[in-house]
User: Which sequence fits this backbone?
């Protein structure tokens, strides 16, 4: 990146110690946010006229091989009009609950990104309208595949995995928007029926 | 009564399967005709999930042209299909889908497992991938390759022709549906585990706990 991408000073002036540290890696600015203030900071980055990070490129997570090192939730932001990128991270210690506030209310595109981070890493995004698995099926019971303690071939035997896969109802994986599941309603898991009944994604009946 | 035949008593626990019909001149002539018709008008149901599907498309296109072998019509509905071609890797999430497609296909039906991933899981020996579609549905022909060239798939199709031409209408077992049983599997669980065992380089895969 040719121009200096992002000025950390205004962020530091606004939030002080909630900006835990920052560094520049391969030309990209990375800021570490305190978990409690992260949502406020991200909202500020989006709304403040000088910042305008109006595009959420990606949300993902990283777990390092060093078991002492915290797991990180990564937000890749971009200001489309200023043409500036910023990477924000929240460190989650392993002994703490894996919870952060959802940014779905700021960027609607966070919906599926947060579902993927939940599916693969088990991070719970508080305030997400419909937090359920997106890549694995709804009733997948083996855990969170991208965590380091997850064995490559899964926890169950192949026969058990095959049995559970064949027992799945293919229609039950989709939300109202993805497929008309009105006729499969009675076969849905109870918690999913409850979520659909709340009307976040349209009403069934 | 003292009149029972000792030979028949000794054989009481043996199970002998007798066909409803035995081959004779009429049935073998009829076999020849039906098999000739079936083998030369196979309608494929393409189940393409990965790069093998690209090779399948090349096979169906004008240069290789599987219409030369009676596969003129690509059947995108399982109800009008004769042969299921699984081209590509099958994740567990798709296992109930291919099983349902297979169950929806009417007899007579056959299946081709195209490529290393469909046949054995290939390089994807991980938590999300079916280790060979023969743990989900019965498979007639395995086509090796990663992905197989169109010639390879055509060879597999010709092998299927050969297999079909050896079938007989007197053999009821050929047309028997192999459904998912009460165990929730189509094969015994230990057979699924055995088929799914790591082989080749993935035996030395130690990252899995």
Assistant:
């Amino acid at each position: 990146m040719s121009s200096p991408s992002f000025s950390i000073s205004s962020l530091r002036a606004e939030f002080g110690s909630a900006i835990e540290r920052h560094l520049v890696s391969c030309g990209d600015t990375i800021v570490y946010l305190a978990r409690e203030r992260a949502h406020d900071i991200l909202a500020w980055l989006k709304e403040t006229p000088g910042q305008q990070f109006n595009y959420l490129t990606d949300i993902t997570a990283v777990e390092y091989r060093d078991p002492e090192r915290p797991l990180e939730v990564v937000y890749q932001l971009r200001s489309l009009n200023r043409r500036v990128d910023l990477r924000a991270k929240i460190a989650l210690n392993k002994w703490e609950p894996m919870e952060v506030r959802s940014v779905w209310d700021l960027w609607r595109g966070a919906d599926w990104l947060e579902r993927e981070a939940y599916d693969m890493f088990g991070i719970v995004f508080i305030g997400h309208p419909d937090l359920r698995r997106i890549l694995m099926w709804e009733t997948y019971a083996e855990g969170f595949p991208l965590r380091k303690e997850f064995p490559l071939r899964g926890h169950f035997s192949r026969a058990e995995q095959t049995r559970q896969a064949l027992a799945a109802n293919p229609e039950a994986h989709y939300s109202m928007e993805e497929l008309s599941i009105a006729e499969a309603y009675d076969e849905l898991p109870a918690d999913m029926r409850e979520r659909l009944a709340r009307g976040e994604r349209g009403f069934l009946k | 009564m003292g009149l029972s035949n000792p030979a028949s008593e000794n054989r009481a626990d043996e199970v002998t399967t007798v066909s409803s019909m035995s081959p004779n001149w009429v049935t073998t002539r009829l076999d020849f005709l039906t098999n000739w018709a079936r083998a030369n008008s196979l309608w494929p149901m393409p189940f393409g999930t990965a790069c093998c599907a690209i090779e399948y498309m090349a096979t169906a296109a004008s240069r290789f042209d599987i219409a030369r072998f009676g596969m003129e019509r690509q059947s995108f509905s399982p109800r009008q299909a004769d042969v299921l071609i699984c081209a590509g890797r099958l994740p567990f999430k798709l296992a109930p889908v291919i099983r349902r497609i297979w169950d929806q296909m009417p007899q007579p039906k056959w299946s081709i497992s195209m490529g290393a991933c469909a046949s054995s899981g290939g390089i994807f020996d991980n938590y999300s991938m079916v280790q060979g579609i023969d743990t989900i549905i019965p498979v007639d022909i395995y086509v090796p390759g990663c992905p197989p060239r169109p010639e390879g798939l055509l060879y597999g199709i010709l092998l299927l022709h050969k297999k079909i031409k050896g079938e007989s209408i007197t053999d009821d077992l050929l047309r028997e549906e192999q459904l998912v049983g009460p165990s929730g599997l189509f094969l015994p669980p230990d057979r699924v585990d055995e088929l799914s065992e790591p082989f080749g380089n993935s035996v030395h895969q130690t990252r899995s706990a």
In short: The first strand of chain B starts at residue 44 and ends at 48.
